[in-house]
Write a structure and sequence with these properties.
signal; Glycosyl_Hydrlase_18; 14 strands; eight-stranded parallel beta barrel; Chitinase_II/V-like_cat; 2 domains; alpha/beta; TIM Barrel
Length: 375
């Protein structure tokens, strides 16, 4: 991979008044998080809504036969509880239902977007489910379109989805549903065998914002060395949050339509030599946790129980800890704050967390909310 030197240009905010006297207002900030619906110990009632503006229900899946969201009775009850609980909270938050997820079949979405008929079925079903269960919007998490054609088809889906949303809102006299999408950290996939790029023009015209997933740069698929899996900067490559976010803006997606993803979990490795323990240190296998992953609350517990050494790395803007041969790379309150300052300097809309229930006593969520206000 070619190294990349990022030049960060601070956004220039230009206010102009048109002849009628109106001033163009910036869209409200997004402080969001995805709620894993399979969490048995973290119900919607446990969410501190003072820290967020939007909560995503994760996930619903379309049928691979009908392309509709076929909601069972038990899921319907869960959806209704999710929206009613969060709308009744003080303060209330906006709710969006996210469709897909990392474990969903990307080929299914490729089939759905491949022709107008299947796109229409999917769009109508998604909107009907959102309205029936009281959601404020819809989010698509397709990981990921595999080739240029699928990217073109995705752009067509977004265009038709926006048209449908406007038509429905006009006919029902209701506020339009929000429409967002979880996307790759970078606007293009230049490191894969098949180069492809997101449909920027369609996204800019059709979506409210994109959720850039700025994490999982490193993991158990490469056990040879430790790594900062959500590094803001990478001195050796373009696989970094700074490069990815700037690529979206450079490509033509307005900064106020880009939301930065933050991980509430760490990636782990087993060190080859406990005395060699920095980022990039030789490793032999994935470390503690399921497939080398620990939630932030588990990281906090591990550090305390094992007397781990905790290090903030300014070069990558990340944190890591180690005890014996166990090594964990993650974000804490300090690295998260620096990332948020970067996002604000770039003129971004806000941030989101994956996943809501992974925090430790709201430690990072509280710091993020404070940092964005102060920013």
């Amino acid at each position: 991979m070619a190294s990349h030197k990022l030049v960060l240009l601070l956004p220039v905010i230009v206010l102009f008044t048109i002849t009628t006297g109106y001033v163009m207002a910036s869209p409200p900030a997004v402080k969001a998080a995805y709620w894993p619906s399979w969490s048995q110990t973290f119900p919607p009632s446990a969410i501190d809504t003072t820290l967020f503006t939007h909560i995503f229900y994760a996930f619903l899946l379309p049928s691979n036969v009908t392309f509709k969201l076929e909601v069972s009775e038990s899921t319907a009850s869960l959806l209704n509880n999710f929206t009613s609980t969060l709308h009744q909270k003080n303060p209330p938050v906006k709710t969006l239902v996210s469709i897909g997820g990392g474990s969903s079949d990307p080929k299914l979405f490729a089939r759905i977007v491949s022709n107008k008929g299947s796109r229409s079925i999917f769009i109508d079903s998604a909107m009907e489910v959102a309205r029936r269960h009281g959601f404020d919007g819809l989010d698509l998490d397709w990981e990921f379109p595999k080739n240029p054609k699928e990217m073109v088809d995705l752009g067509q889906l977004f265009k038709e989805w926006r048209v449908a949303i406007r038509k429905e809102a006009k006919s029902t006299h209701r506020s339009p549903l929000l429409l967002t999408s979880a996307v790759y950290f970078s606007v293009d996939f230049q490191w894969d065998e098949t180069y492809r790029k997101y449909p920027v023009a369609s996204i800019a015209k059709s979506l409210d914002w994109v959720n850039a997933m700025c994490f999982d740069y490193r993991g158990s698929w490469d056990t040879s060395a430790t790594g900062a899996h959500a590094a803001l900067y990478d001195p050796n490559s373009n696989i970094s949050t700074s490069y990815g976010l700037a690529s979206w803006v450079r490509a033509g997606v307005p900064g106020n339509m880009v939301v930065m993803g933050l991980p509430l979990y760490g990636k782990t490795w087993l060190l080859k030599d406990p005395k060699v323990n920095g980022i990039g240190a030789p490793a032999t296998a994935a470390g503690p946790g399921d497939d080398g992953i620990l939630t932030f609350s588990q990281v906090v517990k591990f550090n305390k129980e094992n007397g781990a050494t905790v290090v903030y790395d300014a070069k990558t803007v990340s944190t890591y800890s180690y005890a014996g041969t166990s090594w964990i790379g993650y974000d804490d309150s300090r690295s998260t704050t620096v990332k948020l300052k970067f996002a604000q300097a770039l003129g971004l809309r806000g941030y989101f967390f994956w996943a809501l229930s992974y925090d430790s006593e709201w430690e990072i969520s509280k710091q993020a909310s404070r940092a964005w206000i102060i920013g």
